[in-house]
């Protein structure tokens, strides 16, 4: 607790009602300023997390599209390799029978080997992309959780402010203006002041 706060508390304890209300108003204003700064910091953090969340979401969607593309390529290669092997077997069997197709077709297994290597390459690439998508998906959901926590904290610390300057001035005037004590008539003592209707602020506990 700061020295200024201790002095203000002493003023509240030993001062008259008007001084007490002014001191309480000062303490409340300082607390409100601290809350406003906290809300501003949380809003900035929320905005940065929101931007980061959008970036992770975009990267996640792009990687997912790339992964789908390579999956389709893998399926195409997987379908064409057996067909190419079947055609090669037909050509070889035809060549053994002495058909004239041997003179028109070159018996070369290199295209099939290239397709198999390409298939293996796509398989490895798909695994790498799956790992990357899994990592970016975890990061995306992590950023989303942080954003939700920031929203909860922002809603918890939110203090509604007056919508206009006139309302703020009117609120300050009502706080600063002490309530006049009511006068009652007593048959024995005559007119007297009753302090029962004076409003008192609730005690504030400082750690």
UniProtKB/TrEMBL annotation:
Q: Give the Pfam families listed for this entry.
A: DUF4600
Q: Which domain of life is it from?
A: Eukaryota
Q: What is this protein called?
A: Coiled-coil domain-containing protein 169
Name the species this protein comes from.
Answer: Clonorchis sinensis
């Amino acid at each position: 607790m700061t020295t200024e706060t201790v002095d203000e508390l002493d003023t509240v304890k030993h001062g008259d009602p008007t001084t007490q209300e002014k001191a309480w108003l000062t303490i409340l204003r300082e607390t409100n300023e601290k809350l406003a700064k906290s809300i501003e910091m949380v809003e900035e953090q929320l905005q940065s997390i929101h931007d980061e969340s959008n970036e992770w979401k975009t990267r996640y969607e792009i990687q997912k599209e790339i992964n789908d593309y390579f999956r389709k390529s893998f399926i195409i290669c997987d379908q064409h390799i057996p067909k190419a092997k079947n055609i090669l077997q037909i050509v070889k069997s035809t060549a053994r029978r002495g058909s004239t197709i041997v003179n028109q077709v070159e018996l070369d297994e290199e295209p099939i080997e290239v397709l198999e290597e390409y298939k293996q390459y796509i398989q490895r690439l798909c695994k790498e992309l799956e790992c990357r998508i899994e990592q970016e998906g975890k990061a995306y959901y992590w950023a989303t959780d942080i954003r939700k926590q920031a929203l909860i904290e922002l809603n918890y610390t939110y203090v509604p402010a007056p919508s206009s300057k006139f309302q703020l001035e009117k609120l300050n005037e009502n706080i600063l203006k002490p309530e006049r004590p009511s006068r009652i008539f007593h048959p024995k003592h005559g007119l007297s002041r009753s302090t029962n209707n004076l409003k008192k602020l609730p005690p504030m506990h400082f750690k």
